[in-house]
TrEMBL record:
Assembly behavior: Homodimer.
Co-factor remark: Binds 1 FMN per subunit.
Domain of life: Bacteria
Protein name listed in UniProt: FMN dependent NADH:quinone oxidoreductase
Family: Belongs to the azoreductase type 1 family.
C-alpha cells in the first residue's frame, strides 16, 4: 500500500493546470503500485493560518506549557503534519504566480517546517531533517513560456526554493514535472503523455 498525499495550491481548483498535471501523476503512480491510498489537501478550500506572534510563541513551548489559545493556534499545523508524515509519496501542485509560489503554499510550508516534527538538532548543533524515505513529485505550471529566453524563473524561483525547503526537512528524492505556456490561447497538452514514463523522470539534486 502506497499512501499518496496530493497538495493543491491552485485557486482554479479542478480547472488548474497544476491540478490536472498532479492528477495525471497520481494516476500513473497508482498504475505502478498494486494498491494506493490518496489523501488530498486543498490549500485554497479554507483560509490558512499565517504565522503571527501567538503561533511563534507556541512553537517554543511544549504542549503542557501552552495556553489553550496557543494549542488552538497549532491545530492546523498538527493536522497537516499528520498527513505529511503518513505519506509515502507527495504530489505537490505548484503553479507559478509573479515568479513565485502561491501565498497559500508558502503559508502551508510555514506550518510544516516545525522543530521536533520535520527538523531537529543534534547534540553537536547540526540540523537533521526528519522526513526520510519520502518521494515528492512537483507538478509545476507557468502561464509564460521561458524556454530559450535566457530567463528561467520556473527553475530559479520555484524548483530551487521547493527543493531547498524539502531537503531541509529531510526529503531527498524530488522529481519536478514542468509545463509552461499555459496562458497561450492555443495551449494544448496531453497530461497523461507527459507522465507516461514517470519512472524515468529525473530527480533534482
Amino acid at each position: 500500500m502506497k499512501n499518496i498525499l496530493h497538495i493543491i495550491s491552485s485557486p482554479k481548483g479542478e480547472h488548474g493546470h497544476s491540478v490536472k498535471l498532479a492528477r495525471a501523476i497520481i494516476k500513473q503512480l497508482c498504475n505502478q503500485h498494486k494498491e494506493c491510498k490518496i489523501a488530498e489537501r486543498d490549500l485554497l478550500a479554507a483560509e490558512l493560518p499565517y504565522l503571527d506572534g501567538l503561533h511563534i510563541s507556541a512553537l517554543f513551548k511544549n504542549e503542557a506549557e501552552r495556553s489553550d489559545d496557543e494549542n488552538q493556534k497549532l491545530s492546523y499545523s498538527d493536522a497537516v503534519l499528520r498527513e505529511i508524515k503518513a505519506a509515502d509519496i507527495i504530489v505537490l501542485g505548484a503553479p507559478m504566480y509573479n515568479f513565485g509560489i502561491h501565498a497559500a503554499l508558502k503559508a502551508y510550508i510555514d506550518q510544516i517546517v516545525r522543530f521536533g516534527h520535520t527538523i531537529a538538532y543534534q547534540r553537536d548543533g547540526s540540523r537533521i531533517g526528519l522526513l526520510k524515505d519520502k518521494v515528492v513529485y512537483l507538478a509545476i505550471t507557468a502561464g509564460g513560456n521561458y524556454t530559450n529566453s535566457g530567463f528561467d524563473p520556473v527553475n530559479d524561483y520555484i524548483v530551487n526554493y521547493l527543493q531547498t525547503i524539502l531537503n531541509y526537512m529531510g526529503i531527498e528524492t524530488i522529481i519536478p514535472l514542468i509545463i509552461e505556456g499555459t496562458a497561450a490561447p492555443d495551449f494544448m497538452v496531453d497530461y497523461d503523455q507527459i507522465c507516461n514514463d514517470i519512472q524515468s523522470a529525473t530527480a533534482v539534486s
